Structure formats: C-alpha cells, structure tokens
Amino acid sequence: MASCVFCAIIAGDEPAVWVEREEHAVAFAPLPGSALAPGHTLVAPVEHADDLLGAAPVALAATTALVQRVARAMRGALGATGTVVLQASGADAGQSVRHLHFHVVPCWPDDGTTHWPEPPSAHVVDGDPHALLAEMFE
C-alpha cells in the first residue's frame, strides 16, 4: 500500500532498525523516542492488512508466532521477566498506523511502569456481552 509507512519500511523505502525479517512477518524497533521500554519491538505482517480483522490467516499466524519468538528473545537477551503485547485495531482503539502490528514490550520488576489500560471502559452494552458474543458463533 503506497501510503502506509510500515509497508514502506518493509519494502526498504524507509529506514528501520531490524530485529528479524521473515517471509510473512517482520520485527523492528519503533520510531526513535517512542519506545515504551528498552527493546520495545514492533511485529507486523509483510502483507498489508489495516488491522486484526483484515489479516489473512497465514499472515496473522506468522505474525503472532514471531511475537512469541521476540518475547522469548527479550527474556534471553535482555533479562526481561515479563512481556506485554499491545495491539489496537481501529481508530477508537487508539490505532495510529493503519497496518496491523503488535507492540512487544519487555518488563522487569524495577521498571516502575504498567501497560494495562486504565480506567476500564464506561461503555454500557444492552444485555450480557458474553452471551451476545457467543451468539455470533452459533
């Protein structure tokens, strides 16, 4: 996709600090100054998909498998004792780049931060939300 910055990075048209490049997924450092922690890494499919809902199964599987390998590498190389995986799909979720990607953020006991959404949503759904979800699979 011509206007997608991640597609440009993947094509080599924009600079990147690469962690890993594979046939269906890539891992690279976020833009300078935007890292949430040392080693914070973005993992994205090579094939353009706007978000989680638009990803082809092969691209999604390759991307999540690479997320797992990046998290393992953070434990081994950086001594991270935990990882947070963040993914936003859609503007209302805070997605700023319209190319599916996951943030893999290493965590340590002394880092003094949490990456969990606060406060919880105030949105009200009419009915039992889990029952409504289950109905979609019937």
From TrEMBL:
Residues 5-114 form the HIT domain. Pfam families: HIT (PF01230). A motif (Histidine triad motif) lies at residues 99-103. PROSITE patterns: HIT_1, HIT_2. This is HIT domain-containing protein. It comes from Curtobacterium citreum.
